[in-house]
Records
---
Amino acid sequence: MSRLLHIASSPRGAASESLQIADAFLDSYRAANPDHEVETWDLWDGSLPAFGPPAAAAKMTVFGGAVPQGQQAEAWQAATETFARVDAADRLLFSVPMWNAGIPYILKQLIDVISQPGMVFGVDPAAGYSHLLADKGKRAAVIYTSAVWGPPLGPEFGRDFQSSYFDDWLRWTGIDDITEIRYHPTLTGDADQARTEAHAHAREVARTF
Ligand SMILES: Cc1cc2nc3c(=O)[nH]c(=O)nc-3n(C[C@H](O)[C@H](O)[C@H](O)COP(=O)(O)O)c2cc1C
């Protein structure tokens, strides 16, 4: 059975544009797939482990072919469990506001926690990276929102390291079936119109996701 995990990175609750678009997506998805499991993970709910000194040390220990011990083992176990939570889903919906041209730090924290050798990637000194989530039938939909920057605007309104970074990370994991839903009203655009279009696009994508 299919399992959809919505990974939410806006902390703005009912005021969040990306979460409202995600709600439209999930309503439509549930209507089209009443028997599928659907879960939302609010990354701000306190369940995402830190990736500090023991975790970084554990990663280098594993790279070196050894087994993490003590505090490193605890951090590695937390990373393993977090990865398993994400990997259990074959459908991933990410809601991703632009923060300072990039992504919210809590989403980068998730990336740092789960992007581990043997989980998301392998690496060969000669051939480079292998992408361990490839060919597992995984699909991703990503909701990108911003308020100042928008695709037609030049660098005086900022630059898009939000989708360029996040899309690259998804593809590095091996997930290449990716659909984007965008809401970039800009400061001079018609926000209501842009919102209506983004919600309609989300509902449409969700029907066949
Ligand atoms: C901390 C923070 C940083 C932001 N940085 C940018 C930015 O660099 N460029 C931009 O266009 N909008 C920026 N915004 C505006 C948000 O991207 C925009 O309001 C978006 O819709 C927020 O998503 P949300 O409503 O789901 O929280 C920022 C907002 C916050 C709270």
Note: Residues 140 and 178 are 5 Å apart (CA to CA).
---
Amino acid sequence: MFEFTEEYESLLREVREIAEKVVKPRAKEIEESDEFPEDMANRFFKEGYLQILIPEHLGGVGKDITSFCIISEEIAKVSASMSLLVIVQSVGTLPILLFGSDSQKKEYGSKIPKDHLIMAFCLTEPLAGSDVGSMQMTATKEGNRYFLNGKKNFVTNGGVADQYIVFAKTNPSRGRRGISAFVVEKGLSGMTFSSKDDKIGMRGIPSCSITFKEVPISNVHLIGEEGDGFKIAMESINRSRPAIGAQALGIAESAMEIATLFAMSKETIRKAHCQAGRNAIYAGGDGDDD
Ligand SMILES: Cc1cc2nc3c(=O)[nH]c(=O)nc-3n(C[C@H](O)[C@H](O)[C@H](O)COP(=O)(O)OP(=O)(O)OC[C@H]3O[C@@H](n4cnc5c(N)ncnc54)[C@H](O)[C@@H]3O)c2cc1C
């Protein structure tokens, strides 16, 4: 059976304290204002949460997926959107860590903790969600450059991120095998950001659409080989899926606690609970219905 080591237990205690003392007091305000919380991002960098999977030799903290899940769950208990900040940062970092060349890891990976860079992951398109292979965006090679054309939507951290992992087809006739991945730094000409989506939850961490029109990028920004994009996307998503589960668990645990406290504050429910207890004593049971 899997058991937490002392290292995990200690991380859990630390994150729980940060969540209670630092995140919880800001949570409602972040949700209402829908402004990206720079203070939280800076604090999360200080705690190591936004560079959790980056190895120590690249300036990160080099923790594993279980640690990533612990952080995501504990923060989600007080703020789902602050947990999203942690998760998306790693989704945007993983392509570089898993498939980047040594020089890309040094150039783009080590800059994340050093310069407190925020990451984004641009896969989804208006006509390509679950069905990644039907993406329309293209990267056309000319000499030692590619030109990006197309549109991405639901880009979490869109507009605030410093580096974007962008998936585009270098060979449209090959379906998902024709997809390639690029690391794109902010500020390139031809990238237009829509206004942020007006979400009903997960506010404060923006998402938006990005239009790419003849965006020029050098071929040194290609991650892995041409055609590796689908594999890079799936491997990165697979490693962050457990944290999405942990986030959902954190939200559910908190909702359960709030609902229970609310229910117990109601006179009728308290009375019913006491009556169930008395019935159990007379019947010799434990008060449970089953
Ligand atoms: C809060 C949030 C943040 C996000 N952040 C990002 C981000 O940072 N970067 C990014 O690239 N994307 C992001 N996304 C987009 C997300 O990855 C997509 O929403 C997801 O891939 C699903 O795509 P879709 O919304 O087009 O739904 P669809 O693919 O159209 O799916 C709609 C429904 O149909 C079902 N379905 C689809 N295909 C099949 C099938 N073959 N058989 C049976 N059922 C099927 C799905 O399960 C789903 O229930 C984000 C989304 C949300 C909600």
Note: The two ends are 28 Å apart (CA to CA).
---
Amino acid sequence: MTAAAWQRELSRAITTPEALVAALGLDASLLPAARTSADAFQLRVTPSFLARMKRGDRNDPLLRQILPLVEETEQYDGYVADPLAEREYTRAPNLLQKYSGRALLITTQACAIHCRYCFRREFPYAEQQEEQGAARWSAALAAIAADESLEEVILSGGDPLSLSDSRLTQLTDALQAIPHLRRLRVHTRQPVVLPSRVDDGLVAWLQSVRLPTVFVLHVNHANEIDADVRAACARLRGAGVTLLNQSVLLRGVNDDLETLATLSRALFEAGVTPYYLHLPDRVRGTAHFDVSEARARELVAGLTARLSGYLVPRLVREVPGAASKVQQHV
Ligand code: SF4
């Protein structure tokens, strides 16, 4: 079978510091640290995301999200492999339930890009996936079918859109056969970092899904939204998908008022509602991205004073054991 355009683009992803430095004309002095940190969590970026970065600028806000830095090797108290204690919420292999009424299916470990601050950068995917192929979800699907309190399933990962259209269809056909499910949610960064993923095949898959479907995208900076991303969002909306966005507040990427206000406007113009602004999770190797709660509140207060209410995301932090994400009031 011929590979789709998005699969061909994925096969051209940059995965080494050397290739990244060469592609962006960056200073080679970045290389030793980048090599060390990339050994722990591989560098990965798609050509289309790379094309939105400014050449030669090591402080580019998109580059900072994917560039391995020496700071990742520094140890800080309170920064751990699994800050959200996700292992404790495993109900079946590949099925997590943190909150009432919804459960999260780990569909794949593959992502189109590797975000250095990712809270699942050390997630034990191999432990969860004893079985291969469709069989890997059978225990999770059985657990969902047996629990009538569940009304929503969240496809997560990794990035669920890394799966082929036929694998997605197989999965959603099985979910749709469960009568108590009322909504499908998909947590994905691919329409942003790999907009070619939103192609005829993906739209056909969406049209086969009868459950109301919400995509929660992940955009941190307005520079991530170009014409291709806007076109991908328009196709998704045309297929009946509700589009929300979650951002992570990241030092050196989006921790200033003008940047966040511009992001909210750009999201809305692309048909996406700014939904959550997350305080970064305290994952080992990511302390250099941290923004204090006081600064985060100040920023959201500034957004509230400046923008219409529907353009202001909710400032939240995930706290293990809480009944929902914990909103930080400004
Ligand atoms: S796309 Fe999401 S899951 Fe994948 S590395 Fe980035 S933050 Fe983590």
Note: Strands lie at 90-92, 95-96, 102-106, 152-156, 183-187, 213-218, 242-248, 273-278, 314-317, 326-327.
